Amino acid sequence: MSLPAGPGPALRLSDAQRLAWLRLIRSENVGPITFRALVNRFGGAEAALDALPDLASRGGSKKRIAIASLSSAEAELALAERLGARFVGLGEPDYPPALRAADPAPPLLAVMGSAETLLRPSVAMVGARNASLAGVKFAGHLARGIGEGGFVVVSGVARGIDAAAHEASLPTGTIGVFAGGLDKPYPNENRPLMRRIVDGGGCLVSEMPFGWVPRAIDFPRRNRIVAGLSLGLVVIEAAMRSGSLISARLAGELGRLVFAVPGSPLDPRAAGTNRLLKDGAILVTEAADVVDALTPLAGGLPRLPLLPLEEPGSGPATEEPSETERERILEALGPVPIDLDDLIAFTGAAPGAVQLVILELDLAGRIERHSGGRISLLA
Predict the structure, then answer these.
(1) What is the mean pLDDT of residues 32-39?
(2) Level-2 CATH architecture, domain 323-377
(3) Which listed residue, 40, 133, 286, 300, has the most CB atoms within 10 A of its CB?
(4) In this predicted model, which residue has the larger pLDDT, 216 or 320?
C-alpha cells in the first residue's frame, strides 16, 4: 500500500488495515519515521509486523521486541468508539492537510468531534499557563479576530493562554491537542472546556494511545502537532524557558510563520516573546497582523506536498547491506548526531542499505533521532 504522491485519489483504510496500522504504531520503538520506513519497505503494516522481531534482532536487541497484540488494538478501537472518537490515517480524506505535509506526521490521529474542522486553515496560539489578566484578555481578543478572519484556532487545552484562545474561538472553530490519550484530559479543570469544544463543532486530537497519562516528555510531541496543524503560530507571554518557545522552534523547523506579541520588559512572562521578536518573529498587535500574513497561504493549502509512502521494490530501499557495509555503517555512527546523507556519503554504501541498518538499530532501541533528521548511536 502507498499514500498518494500528490493530488489524486485519497487513501482509504479498510477496517483490517486500520487495525494493523494501530498495532504497528503502538509497537515498541516504532515512531512516525520508523512506521513510514517499515511500510515503505514491506508494502503494508501487516507484513511489517511480521518482520519486526527479525529486524530488531539484527539490530542487536537483546530481548524480543514488544509487538502490540491484536486484542489490545481491538480494545483501543472499541474504547474510542464508545467515547465517540475514531482514528484517521495519514493520507485519508479527513487527515489534516497541513499536518500531512509535516515531517514526520503521525500515521494515525485519534479524533473526537468534527473532523471538518481539521480541513480548514488553522492558526496555533500558545503562551504562559500562569498568564497575566492582560495576557488572557488579549489572547481572547486575538483568537476572536483570527476566527472571524476565517481561521481555526489550535492550542493545547492547557491553563492560561491556551484556554483563553479556545474559549474565544468556540463560535468559529477550534482544535485542542492532547499530550496524553483522549480519555485522559489534562488539566482536569479544563474538562468542561473540552466538552464545549466537541459539542460546539470543534475537535480534540491526539497521537497517543487511549489510557496514556501525559508525562513531561510528551508535551513537546504535542507541541509539534499543534505547530504542524497550523500555517502559523502565535506566542503570547512566554518566559525564556518555556514550552511555548519549544513550540515556536518546532514551527520554524516545519516552515510555519512565527508571530509574537510584545510585552513589558519588566515582566519575565514576556521575555521569551520579546526575544522571538528580536530573532525575527512577526510582530502582532491585532488579529489583522496574523490574518493578513496567512490568508495568501490558506489559498494554497490543498496543494501542500505529501510525503508519500513508496511501493516496496520501487527503489534502493530494498537493497541488503553486505557484512562489510554493515560494519562500516556501525563504525561511522557515534554519540554525535549526524545527517543520514552524510552517513551514506562517508560509508559509500547504497542508500537503501544504510536505511535498513538504521531501521534495524532503531527497532533495537540503539539510536536516537534528532531535529533535522540527524541520528546518533546510543551508548
Answers:
(1) 94
(2) Orthogonal Bundle (1.10)
(3) 40
(4) 216
- Burial (CB < 10 A; 0-12, 13-18, 19+), residue 32, is buried
Q: Are strands 122-127 and 108-113 parallel, antiparallel or unpaired?
A: unpaired
DSSP state string for 121-166: -EEEEEE-TT--HHHHHHHHHHHHHHHHTT-EEEE---TTHHHHHH
Taken as a whole, the chain contains a residue count of 379
Q: How far apart are CA 317 and CA 327, in angstroms?
A: 18
Separation between Cα atoms, residue 181 and residue 319, nearest integer Å: 38
Please state, in angstroms and as integers, the Cα–Cα distance from residue 369 to each residue in 95, 191, 249, 334, following that order: 25, 34, 17, 12
Domain ranges of the chain: 15-94+105-110, 112-302, 323-377
Residues 151 and 230 sit within 8 Å (Cβ to Cβ): no
Return the ∠ at Cα 197 (arms to 192 and 201), rounded to 5°: 145
What pLDDT, on a 0 to 100 scale, did the predictor assign at position 4?
A: 38
| Closest residue by Cα to residue 244 from 315, 320, 156 | 156
Q: Name residue, grid cell 533521532.
A: 369
Cβ-contact 178, 208 below 8 angstroms? yes
Average pLDDT, the chain: 90
Rounded CA separation 33/103 (Å): 8
